[in-house]
Amino acid sequence: MTALTGKVVLVTGASSGLGEQLALAVAAQGAQVVLVARRHDRLVKVADQCRLLSQTQAVALTADISSVSAVDQVFATIDELFDHLDTVINAAGFGYLVPAIEMDHVMMARMLRVNTLGVMYVSQLAAQRMVKAQHGEIVNVASIAGKIATPKSAVYAATKAALIAYDNALRLELRPAGINVLTVNPGPIQTDFFKTADPTGHYLDSVAWLALNPVKFAAQIVRRLGRHRREINAPWVMGAANLGYQLAPKLGDWLAGSVFNFK
């Protein structure tokens, strides 16, 4: 990991879950953190924690990344406060796990706007600035669901699969400018994600044996910054399952519908 002292790091989805832990982890390395999320009160508390850890500034910007104008304002504020942007970590996103034929179209559109289009737009504005500086790294948190879709995750998996494809192309486009794009594909994480994602409330209990600890996983991601890594797939058992899925799709379908289907 390159030294983060004095670096400017933007973290979206920073008010809770993995985004919060990523913000705290980069702050602990001395980064100046710009935190973005919708929940103002919670975001301010995280910013206060970051300030204590980094002993430098942490800026809380209340915004919904599904809004183009809100994202524009975030970057206008960054341009005003800082003369550069070193790293962007897009952790904003949510899921709602129901059968595809039962998915409300409003929820479907909302998921696409946040998980895919919002992250793409943040990445685009960040990349424009990084290309001028010939420096930077974009980290987008997708999901192993974007590689191994299971029942009740059709729309969520689609939003993440699109993000993975976007990152794969963006990585090649930005490589000549020395900018890395790191795609993070986690399996289930022990966060409040499932309070929204799982109406039954039982999914996280059923996958507790492989659920990631958000503090440890955030530290793992931050350790990879500056190393020009392409992907992080975790936990390892799901990363291995993805490789098997590509080699034996029919077997992969059976596993995704049975062994890895806990919903």
Give the helix level as a range of percent: 40-55%
Strand order of the biggest β-sheet: 3-2-1-4-5-6-7
Looking at CATH, the homologous superfamily is: NAD(P)-binding Rossmann-like Domain
> What is the CATH C level class, in words?
Alpha Beta
Mean pLDDT over the full residue set:
91
Q: What's the architecture in CATH terms?
A: 3-Layer(aba) Sandwich
Helix/strand order: EHEHEHEHEHEHHHEHH
Task: Note the main sheet.
Answer: 7 strands, parallel
Number of strands: 7
CATH topology: Rossmann fold
Shape field: globular
Q: Which regions have little confidence, pLDDT < 50, spanning 5+ residues?
A: none
| Number of spatially distinct domains | 1
Query: What class, by secondary structure content?
Result: alpha/beta
Describe this entry's structure for a reader.
The protein is α/β, with parallel strands linked by helices and 263 residues long. It has one domain: 3-Layer(aba) Sandwich (Rossmann fold), CATH 3.40.50.720. Helices cover 50% and strands 14% of the residues. It contains 10 helices and 7 strands. Strands 3-2-1-4-5-6-7 form a 7-stranded parallel sheet, with helices on both faces. Helix 2 links the parallel strand 2 and strand 3. Helix 1 crosses helix 8, helix 3 runs parallel beside helix 4 and helix 4 runs parallel beside helix 5. The model has no long low-confidence stretch (mean pLDDT 91). Belongs to the short-chain dehydrogenases/reductases (SDR) family. This is SDR family NAD(P)-dependent oxidoreductase. It comes from Lactiplantibacillus dongliensis. InterPro entries: KR_dom, NAD(P)-bd_dom_sf, SDR_fam.
